[in-house]
Specification:
The chain is an alpha+beta fold. The chain folds into 2 domains: about 55 residues, no CATH class; about 40 residues. Helix content is about 50%, strand content about 20%. Helix 2 packs across helix 3. The longest helix is centred in the middle third of the chain and has 21 residues. The protein is flat. The two termini are about 20 Å apart.
């Protein structure tokens, strides 16, 4: 994963063509780039973001923004209450407790993916 100006991109390597290619994640626009080496890939990513932002400016368009960090979650009233009470009993604010649980879930899943054979 690469990051630049709050945008993130996933990277893949095409072994047959011996080329890296990437795509910006989390926006509606399709922004891609490619290169033969890691330094060239980094520059191509930066250039693609800068080109995308310049194009948006020229076209009087608002650029897609990556994830904001805010998202509504719908759940049952019972789960909401139980989570709130668990957060309270742990001494954390509800928001901090939810963030910790999401982080733990993401880390556990990443760990599981690393150990898949």
């Amino acid at each position: 994963m690469m990051k630049y100006k709050s945008y993130s991109a996933s990277i893949e390597f095409d072994e047959e063509a011996e080329i890296f290619h990437g795509e910006v994640e989390g926006i509606r626009a399709v922004v891609t780039f490619q290169a033969k080496s890691a330094p060239e890939l980094k520059q191509a990513f930066y250039d693609s973001i800068d080109d995308y932002l310049a194009w948006c400016s020229e076209e009087n368009r608002v650029p897609d923004k990556p994830f904001s960090g805010n998202f509504p979650v719908r759940t049952s009233a019972e789960l909401h209450r139980d989570a709130f009470m668990t957060a309270k009993s742990s001494g954390k604010t509800f928001n901090l407790w939810v963030i910790d649980q999401i982080r733990k879930g993401v880390e556990d899943e990443a760990d599981n993916l690393l150990h898949v054979k």
